From TrEMBL:
Region (Disordered) location: 116-135, 164-188, 222-246
Protein name in UniProt: Predicted protein
Domain Origin recognition complex subunit 5 C-terminal, residue spans: 198-343
Gene Ontology BP term (one): DNA replication initiation
Organism name: Laccaria bicolor (strain S238N-H82 / ATCC MYA-4686)
Lineage: Eukaryota, Fungi, Dikarya, Basidiomycota, Agaricomycotina
Domain of life: Eukaryota
Amino acid sequence: MINSLARWTPQWEDGVVNWGADNGVRWNDTFDGFVHGLRAVHAYLGKGQEKEGDARVDLCVVFVSEAPWETIRPPLGASPDPYFFDIPPPTKEAYIAAARWPGFVKPVLDANKRDMDMDADSDSQESFQTPSEETRMHLSRLFNPSLSLALDALHPRLQNATDWAKANEPPPNLLDNPPTTTKTAVPSDEKDADIIFLPRLSKFILLASFLASTNPPKSDLRIFGRGLDERKKRKRRASGKPTKTKGEVTKVAQHLLGPTSFTVDRMLAIPGALLEENDVDSRIHGHASEFSIPGEETNMEISRVAVYAAVVELTSMRLLTRTSAVNQLDDPPTFRAAVGMRWRCVWQRSWMLVLGIFFGRLCSCLNWSSRRILSAACH
């Protein structure tokens, strides 16, 4: 460090001598020697600069942060309040407008540019004419399927807006093609729906692992629970304590942080609720008289050895990731889902599952904007 501060490069011809070694002083023996070396470098670099004044430069510091100023402000007024701009996060409409506006308006601009190139030699200066009703309906029919694609890809932040717009850029001269020969955008979920060849039980287990990885454990009873709650609901009372002025750290959604680990007992309890809602009629038909308690047959099904064999098979296929040690026998094994939102949407549409009941219960705890986004993603 002393050599770099003094701009000294040891040479092999000189015996790789460090800076200041002519006086017989070594700066790297002790900490005191290192401090004396720093002072010597400062004195060496300051020679001939006594007459030069300190530079007084006006600085303007721009600090960009995703956290609001109320959250990161130092306590007790340690720093003055800056002049800041509070930019709120984009809404769902802003996401769709930023993603689809270049692709929607590009065919219109291409047609206008072609007309302007043809009339470049003429003296006519006509203003830009709006598209006709037929052209507008043609564009709406072509680009309406891309709205759901944009919501599925941009809201979970699986892809940024620029790359998504380039991947879904319409072909040139789109308006010149007849409506019957133009192919509309097909969601990637439907393209990949025919490549999934897993057993039905394995799909339920994999869907349960996705729900367990993206939802906290305390929400399982609220989403998948059945029956009336016998406990009386307590009314909320307004507290007389003043609200805290100090901001808190903003919590990031779990689907943006990534999947979390869960125990195998929790993973097998969620498929029980899914099977009870979607598959109990096909399994219990013919021997319904043997089961008198609701959920008895489903509890027996999820306790079979085939369920644990399906978990092992999904782990070997790298659709599930085991996070606990294999030789650990004291605690139950823990797993983590290796699939994302796109696979969940594919399986939900291919099975025709009644998952709207569960997501409807989850929406009751969310605000209005989150309900709209979640309902659009499910349907």
